């Protein structure tokens, strides 16, 4: 049984030594709601801080690679692919989709969620002088493939 508790009930990192190496992939998303004017500035490339999407994309990729430094008890992983895509959604939101892959003994859900979250936080940071009322929402796992627990896909 995999657990973060040892025989004395203390938190520890799960031992994945006996788990098989398999292809694993996870996709997560986040949304950032903002004023339509803020989104238009980003889309038109007129934001005073430059290409907001490019900076947020890089931040998300870097965050995925550092997840074990940020989330206690996460395994350090050798990711083989990290993709972070940002797109305008309607007139007042940005959708962020992060996908992480590897061949390993444990999943990459936390890496995908971290990438989406940090990309959203970076977008907020870059735009807060223009729009302090932005809301980061719907950070969630969309899909996972591979591993012992099998596939998962969000419904709806």
UniProtKB/TrEMBL annotation:
Gene Ontology terms for molecular function: cyclic pyranopterin monophosphate synthase activity
Signal peptide location: none
UniProt keywords, alphabetically: Lyase, Molybdenum cofactor biosynthesis
GO BP, sorted A to Z: Mo-molybdopterin cofactor biosynthetic process
Top-rank EC class of the record's enzyme: lyase
Domain Molybdopterin cofactor biosynthesis C (MoaC): 13-147
Enzymatic reactions: (8S)-3',8-cyclo-7,8-dihydroguanosine 5'-triphosphate = cyclic pyranopterin phosphate + diphosphate
Quaternary organization: Homohexamer; trimer of dimers.
UniProt function note: Catalyzes the conversion of (8S)-3',8-cyclo-7,8-dihydroguanosine 5'-triphosphate to cyclic pyranopterin monophosphate (cPMP).
Family under the similarity heading: Belongs to the MoaC family.
Protein name: Cyclic pyranopterin monophosphate synthase
Organism of origin: Pseudomonas parafulva
């Amino acid at each position: 049984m995999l657990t973060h508790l040892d025989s004395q009930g203390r938190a520890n990192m799960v031992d994945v030594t006996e788990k098989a190496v398999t292809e694993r992939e996870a996709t997560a998303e986040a949304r950032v709601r903002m004023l339509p004017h803020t989104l238009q500035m980003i889309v038109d490339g007129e934001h005073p801080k430059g290409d907001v999407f490019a900076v947020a994309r890089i931040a998300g990729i870097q965050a995925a690679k550092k997840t074990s430094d940020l989330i206690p008890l996460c395994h350090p992983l050798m990711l083989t692919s990290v993709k972070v895509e940002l797109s305008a959604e309607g007139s007042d939101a940005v959708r962020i989709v992060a996908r992480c892959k590897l061949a390993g003994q444990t999943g990459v859900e936390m890496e995908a969620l971290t990438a989406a979250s940090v990309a959203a936080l970076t977008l907020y940071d870059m735009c807060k002088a223009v729009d302090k009322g932005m809301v980061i929402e719907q950070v969630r796992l969309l899909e996972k493939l591979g591993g012992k627990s099998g596939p998962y896909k969000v419904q709806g």
